[in-house]
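Chains adopt folds. We examine one example:
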Amino acid sequence: MKRRRFLASPLLLAAARGVAEESLAKDPAQLSVQPAASPYPRVVPSYRLRFPSDLGSHPAFRSEWWYITGWVRDAASKDLGIQVTFFRNRPRIAEAGGSRFAPDQLLFAHAAVADPRNGKLRHDQRAARAGFGLAEAAEQTTDVRIDDWSLRLDDGKYRARVVAEDFSLDLSFAPTQPILLQGEQGFSRKGRDSVNASYYYSQPQLAVSGSIEIGSRSANVTGVAWLDHEWSSEAMAPGASGWDWTGINLHDGGALMAFRMRDRAGAAIWADATLRGADGETVHFAANQINFTAQRRWRSPRTGVEYPVVMQLTVGDSDYTLVPLLDDQELDARVNTGTIYWEGAVRALRGEREIGRGYLELTGYWKPLKF
């Protein structure tokens, strides 16, 4: 019954419309005399990210997410992939009504463990409107939670706690490097028009420690993770159907982020990449220097969706082959964020040699993604 409280986004949005309709039924003139909801602010290239204030929530913007992905290993040297994601959305429904029940902010969360021994992804999800002490996203620092799921920055370390249906996570993530600004000093374009952009920074090479419980098994783990924090109002360009994204912690201490936005035919309409070298120097690559090429595809036996799970990535003069920890890392989030996507732990190879580990995200292969 506890899990049923956190129902899907369609139900939350339906509840929001119900608030507006109830107000209109009581007084048909009420909504017309109330001030309109303020518009979403635009992402602009002149803004410079500020820390620590930009570690927190930005509730005026349409959407925002905190993404942690990583590889961990238990005492038996078994590799696992982990993902913890919190999303925030401002639907602009009944904002001016003043009702405590109006969903001014909606929060969603996904968590997953990629365990080759299981053969497929273990995952769970939550959704709630902010407020009533059940779900919040703080503005002062990273502190977002839905009931007993949370991601918080405390004493310089991130801590994620998740109690899912068949697994639980209690993990600490300690930064070992400075924040990595993506795009143009944190202004990350998603298309040719500069209005399609996000504010975006990463924290690669996070040192992971903590515990994972799967069924009756509990294990202490250590590893390396990657955090992304993005917020925007118009991230998807017209004609964009989804994206391919990767964040790789390189074994030499460097970090690579690359993505491409795809149209419905699968062609790239924009791309971007940032490489931090082992010496700490950062290089930003233009769209024409980046290429994603599918090497092998996998079809989900549950949804029938086909994904390019082995990807050849070219960034500048360097080639990387991204190979999954296991093929079945599909996350069906139709009852939460309304989509199906593939989010998987991958090895980065140069030839036959592994040079890094990270995650690959593939969206828009089921249906065009809509925010």
Remarks:
- The longest helix spans residues 9-26.
- Residues 3-362 form a domain with the AttH-like fold fold (CATH 2.40.370.10).
